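The records we work with from here on pair a chain with its fold. Each token is a code from a learned vocabulary of local backbone shapes. A record is reproduced here so that you can trace the correspondence yourselves:

_____
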Amino acid sequence: MPQQKKIKLEDLRKTIPFDIPTTAIQAYVSPLAVYHMISGHPVSREEAERVLAALSTDERPLSLDTIDIVLWEDFLVLHCARATDGVNFNQDQFSFIYARDEVHARRLFYTWSTHVNHAHMYVTPMPQGIVIGTTTIPGTQQIRHDKNTENPT
């Protein structure tokens, strides 16, 4: 059975006009989340489901199965991880890590820095990326999903 093509929220807005602030209030999300959904930027699954529920009617139910929305869970986010003993700051260790969330980033960083005896570990998400000199490090990496398998690759 052929898979039905998902509609973009931006295209849906052309046929069913809705106001960003009002929709945000009805969905209990920030207006920025609604704007991000319309413009194709990632949002959390919970925000997406709330907005779609707010826009749904009995005649026109909307879901993530029918509307194409970019979700954060489809991306790895750049994190800056710093290990420090709190005394010798010139010996702090920094790493950039792509991870699903802060817990995942901490786990990855911990395994890479077990040889360093640091008392504190700080992890900061950087979804906008970073520029160091002439080098640009993107803030996100899309996770590739193989449509023929259940597990992401």
Notes: The chain has five helices and eight strands. The chain has two domains: 7-70, 74-142.
